[in-house]
């Protein structure tokens, strides 16, 4: 009983049932007017209680130009209803772009869940890019498949990126890559992206403010380098979301679920 009480006390301290909004201001020479992005990652189909309405309201209130879904939006075990509720609430607010995470590929009906996303107007990026215009700015939004795809059919993620993105260096505009796994940043840096957005790490699950940014993350192990936050690699900005999922059996310690808001403004000349 004492152990249980301690566990519940710690679980309560985390504030894990509230959603934190994290804002990142970025500058770029490749845009002339500001653009506003929302990043959603690692929903895992779970929206708990009033957080469903809170999350939708936060997204709508931000009035984003584009919404980026960085994988694990659907879980292989949780009902898809939570994802559907989110998409129903935001589908008409802005263009929505999505890439797979590992949990979508773990789902027993992968083709079916992709059709659900498409039914809400979600643009699925599968090792490809789309050229759009935002507030007069040419923008390229690219997305990579999760490497877990290779479990089902032959797939080399590095080869796929090379075939899809080598030509981007010749194209004008602000270039964004949506990629579920932050630990593959070395590969992303090989291409002409200005911004990479990721998830997957769940904020390292446990944080100690000012001391430890994350304890453990999938595919990074203990003390992950890319648990969550803004990382700069020369000209490339890399934003890693701490994700939105809540799991009672794997509590988030000082690591609340987060929605990421990104404002990109022109650099001063």
In the CATH scheme, what's the topology name? Purple Acid Phosphatase, chain A, domain 2
Task: Please give the CATH class.
Answer: Alpha Beta
Protein structure class: alpha/beta
Under CATH, the homologous superfamily reads Metallo-dependent phosphatases
Secondary-structure element string = HEEHEHEHHEEEHEHEEEEEE
| Low-pLDDT sequence parts | none
What's the story with the biggest beta sheet? 6 strands, mixed
Count of individual helical segments: 7
Mean pLDDT: 91
Biggest sheet: strand arrangement: 1-14-2-3-4-5
* Overall number of domains: 1
Known CATH architecture: 4-Layer Sandwich
Gross morphology: globular
Report how far apart the termini are: 63 Å
Percentage of residues assigned to helices: 10-25%
Q: What amount of the residues lies in strands?
A: 25-35%
Topology of this structure?
Layout: H1 2-13, E1 20-28, E2 35-40, H2 51-62, E3 66-69, H3 81-90, E4 96-98, H4 102-106, H5 110-119, E5 123-124, E6 128-134, E7 137-143, H6 157-165, E8 174-178, H7 185-188, E9 195-198, E10 216-217, E11 221-222, E12 229-233, E13 236-240, E14 258-266
Parallel strand pairs: 1-14, 2-3, 3-4, 4-5, 7-8, 8-9, 9-13
Antiparallel strand pairs: 2-14, 6-7, 10-11, 12-13
Give keywords:
alpha/beta, globular, six-stranded mixed β-sheet, 7 helices, Purple Acid Phosphatase, chain A, domain 2, 23% helix, 269 residues
Offer a concise description of the structure.
This protein is α/β, with parallel strands linked by helices. Helices cover 23% and strands 26% of the residues.
